[in-house]
Each structure stands twice: as structure tokens, then as C-alpha cells.
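thought: user wants a sequence for this fold. calling inverse folding tool.
action: design(structure=
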């Protein structure tokens, strides 16, 4: 999972703005720190939004940089991405945490914990929740990219 970000240069700094995440932005002086700084800002914003119980917007799949800017795609760490995917799937199914818990045969507190950015659910638990949502869990490995993908 990845979110688009727009990078512009302002007063000698590189400014990164996430159009899907209202108010999420950061800046850095050095190009080499751009991706790390952007990942940290995005993760912090997503975690805070999850913890607050607010809706986290799904990332758009297509984007274009604004005039004079550059488009970069900022990845979300797998542990955080799974929390977002679970919450989106539950809400798309029209289920509360209690409804999903009943379907999955677990407590509502366990569902809440799974959607918490600090939890670390097991693959078995993720599979059980996916089945309760009428889905299946897929796991994959991909090559790591050291550059910011445009």
C-alpha cells in the first residue's frame, strides 16, 4: 500500500504534502532524507487518525503532480497497512467491531486491538477475521526499492 505525495521546493526546503491525508505534510532540507521523512510523517498521521477512531482515507491509485512539483509514492509499513485494510473491509461490510467479533468468534476488544496501530496480530487471527469478512488473507513479498518511485 502506498499514498501519493506532492513534493515542491519552498525557501530551499523540500515540502511533502499528502493530498489524501488532510493536513499531513512534512519538509526536509535534503533529497536523500525525503523518503524517510515522508514515511515517518505519513505513518504518524495514519496512526494518530486510527487511534482517534477517525476515518482514514483510502489512497488514490492515480495522481498527477501539481505544476512545478513532483509526484512520489510513499509506502506504508505492512504492520500498519494491515490495520487499515481490516478497518476498511469491516466498514465496507457495514459491520461494527462487535458484529465482526461475533462472526469471527472473538471479543470486540480483540477486534479493537487488531485495528490499533500498536498491536501485532498473528497470521492465524488475521485469517480468522478475513474469513469472517468473507475474504481471504494474501501474503506476498516484493522487491525493495531504495528510491522514491515516481
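)
observation: tool returned 150 residues.
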Amino acid at each position: 500500500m502506498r499514498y501519493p505525495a506532492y513534493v515542491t521546493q519552498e525557501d530551499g526546503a523540500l515540502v511533502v504534502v499528502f493530498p489524501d491525508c488532510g493536513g499531513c505534510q512534512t519538509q526536509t532540507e535534503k533529497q536523500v532524507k525525503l523518503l524517510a521523512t515522508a514515511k515517518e510523517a505519513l505513518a504518524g498521521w495514519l496512526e494518530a487518525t486510527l487511534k482517534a477512531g477517525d476515518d482514514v482515507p483510502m489512497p488514490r491509485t492515480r495522481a498527477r503532480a501539481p505544476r512545478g512539483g513532483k509526484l512520489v509514492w510513499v509506502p506504508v509499513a505492512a504492520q500498519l497497512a494491515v490495520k487499515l485494510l481490516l478497518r476498511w473491509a469491516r466498514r465496507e461490510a457495514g459491520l461494527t467491531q462487535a458484529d465482526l467479533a461475533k462472526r469471527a468468534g472473538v471479543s470486540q476488544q480483540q477486534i479493537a486491538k487488531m485495528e490499533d496501530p500498536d498491536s501485532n496480530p498473528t497470521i492465524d487471527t488475521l485469517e480468522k477475521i478475513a474469513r469472517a469478512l468473507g475474504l481471504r488473507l494474501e501474503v506476498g513479498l516484493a522487491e525493495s526499492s531504495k528510491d522514491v518511485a515516481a
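thought: summarizing for user.
answer: Here is the designed sequence. The chain has five helices and four strands.
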